[in-house]
Amino acid sequence: MKFQICLAAACLAASLPIYAANPFVPVELSDQELSQLRGRYVLPGRIINFGITMSSSWQNASGQVLGANVSMQIQQNMPKPVFNVQTYSQSGNSSENTLASNSGNGQIAGGNGLNAVQGVVQSTRSAGDYNSSYNGVDIEVAHGNTAPAMSGQPLLTASSTSSEAGMVSVSPTNGGLQLAINAKDHGVSLQQLGAGGVMQRTDISSSGNRVENIAALSVMLRENSAAAGGLDCNWNQLNALRPTGL
Questions:
Q1: Are the beta carbons of 97 and 62 closer than 8 angstroms?
Q2: Which of 28, 82, 133, 203 has the fewest C-beta atoms lying within 10 Å of its C-beta?
Q3: Is residue 104 part of a domain?
Q4: What range defines the domain where residue 189 resides?
Q5: Is residue 150 part of a domain?
Q6: φ/ψ (deg, to 5) at 162
Q7: What is the mean pLDDT of residues 58-74?
Q8: Where is the signal peptide (predicted)?
């Protein structure tokens, strides 16, 4: 009886994968397992700073300007991110631009499907002449051992500025951040980050406008070597991502 138990144990040991004994041997994941993994894996403690910068501006044919700049940063051991928000407006001179009297006559229809798209969405629609529009998203990954100094406060309510040209507002929405400009009869622009996606949208219904939506995401990774036993910990965390384990 003992011989049979020993024989069964020997067979079981022989059937175990080699990487169970040596966790540093590479393991190839199947397509099914890869399809269930989300995002990219980053070693624990490597991210020491994550930041977002968003900027939107609208200049109409009269030279009036509406805009906002907002930056968000979060670091290790921080319960909430901090924000720096600046909204601004500038007056223009409509008497120097003949396009001002012809603005606001365009009609834009449809486009509701843009709100249902996930991921990165960039759109510009114009129903006027001599308009320019720019949407841009940048991603920067840096390395260092010291996180940049931060100043600001949590964004709990919307911040807005109104003028003759319209209104610009920055507000938290859907677990993310939204920067919107309502340029009255000249059009609207929207820049939104959160809920698993980035949206930059501009609808222009007049002529002679210049619109910009710019977003930048920055990540700083710590420059350090793995501590003793750290590789085993990292392997166990990767192992937990597999539905059936190793």
A1: yes
A2: 28
A3: no
A4: 51-91+119-222
A5: yes
A6: -120, 145
A7: 91
A8: 1-20
Residue 90's nearest CA partner among 167, 165, 185, 158 is 165
Number of domains in the chain: 1
191 belongs to a structural domain: yes
Q: What Rg value do the Cα atoms of the chain yield, rounded?
A: 27
Residue 193 lies in a domain: yes
Q: Note the pTM of the prediction, 2 decimals.
A: 0.69
Q: Rounded to whole angstroms, how far apart are CA atoms 134 and 151?
A: 29
Task: Express each pLDDT in 73-84 by its tens digit.
Answer: 888 777 778 888
Q: Report the candidate in 88, 183, 66 with the shortest Cα–Cα distance to residue 128.
A: 183
Q: Which among 124, 118, 119 has a CA at the least distance from the CA of 190?
A: 124
pLDDT in tens, 82-132: 888 989 988 876 554 444 444 566 677 666 777 767 778 888 888 888 999
In sign, the C-alpha dihedral spanning 171, 174, 175, 180 is negative
